Amino acid sequence: MKAHFRITSDLLGHILSDLRRPHPFAGERVGFLTCRAGILVRNEFVLLGQKWHTIADEDYIRDFSVGAMIGAAAFRKILQYGYTNPVSVFHVHLHEHDGIPRFSQTDQRETAKFVPDFWNVRHGLPHGALVLSNTSVSGKCWYSAATQPIPISEFRIVGAPIKWVRHE
Amino acid sequence: MVGTSDLQELQLVCPGAAVLHESNLEYVYLPRLKLPAGCSPPEADGLLCLQGRDGYLTRLFLSAEVRGKGNNWKAHQILSRTWYVCSWNNVSSDLRPAQILAEHLRAFR
Amino acid sequence: MNERFQRQSFLGPNSDEILEHCRVGVIGMGGGGSHIVQQLGHIGIGQLVVVDNDRVEESNLNRLVGATATDAKKGRLKVDVARRVIKGINPKARIKTIPKLWQTSGEDLRVCDVIIGCLDTFSARAELEAMARRFLIPYIDIGMDVHTVETRFVISGQVILSIPGHPCLRCVGFLNDYLLAQEAQRYGAAGARPQVVWPNGVLASLAVGILMQLLTPWHGEHRTIEYLEFDGNQNIVVRSNRLAHLQTDRCPHFEDGDNLGDPFFGVACEKNALLCDA
Question: How close C188 comes to chain A (CA, Å)?
Fold first, then answer.
């Protein structure tokens, strides 16, 4: 199974601008990107970035052991959106460096905790997480509650010009 | 705009009917729509456009051509799938949605 | 850099790699499409999807690039002529030929990085653009026409770039409901439209130029909408003044989430079995 990801350069730019805003106490910001999907060829599907969901300042929790911790209210809002709209949900955060970003152990542990909640409200669609850097992006995708996540193999940033990030 | 009552009316005929959008048009998706007796196939997914499109007042697209019925079948790509439609005009958008559907299905009697 | 592409090294340090990995869909292998695929072969596009259900006829030979008298005699598929032309230039190009109506082959186009439409009708263009927008694929549209104004003939044509999130063919006034309705009423009465080779060559070259600006970083000025009009009597190409009337760089026609992706994905699990829990 192979996952592809496409997003407009405008939407990605909007996400980066939002994540770079300073927060009153959190070390970094996070957010959710909802996506639509489609089959490309057998055993390959594509996720299409649709809408960015900013997390309100007041929905962060003071927890200085991690860069950012969001509370139940933030999850409730995105789960509500996922319940009423046929979308895939991706948690997104930013590592402020150039080059390929990687999920830390904390990232992987936390993501695996909340992605199943997305399956509960929107079964049958892939969900996952993205990590951005200043110049690149990586992602993981759960396409079934019963399987381990797969890496997103190709990102296409659609604008003028088009840019690709490929993870072989 | 396809109103709630319009959709409910069509859901009585076709459970699972749902409204979908493409560009500036609305379509009512009719899964496994039963076609008139003697049709081949006996059922097909349908896409009912209750507003003017391509010079037609309303249109009914099907996921398969109905063999031996209807004239001038054309293929269209709508909502990421292939749909087929025959020439059948003058079904007014002023009728009730279920009547519009019934009038379009008359093409296959 | 491959010696073959040394003369185009100005396109950027990784340009040959970018072009080799790129997949371009060309819909319609008539006068415009046949020009385009020849140029894509020369420029090094590595993967192509070419679509046309038609066969070569004698009347095509005044403009169908690569088609021969033998092709017309044998009724060869236009996509097979395209394959021969591309492979003759770039044997390494991977080509998928689809000798069917594009409307029945939508799934095959979803993998494309860019789609170029060389279609005859407004309704087909509207649907192809909508499909391209669904899968966030930039779309380049070309077309030419020869029409009569009073007693003289006028050759005109256009090339339009439509990038998801930015103005579409409706935004720039090229498509509207009136034109679509008029076209539907003329169905069956259209007859063979006049077509000649040189305007197709101009328009095809402009389309390939726009494609190269989308793919490679050589240009520096990246436009998110382009609408070029060709006056085949004056032999000039100008940027359409319709662009000056655009109120915004955003497109209101495809904003709704329903216009993105496959709306049936995940709805009917039996159609997407690979994504459903057993």
Answer: 35
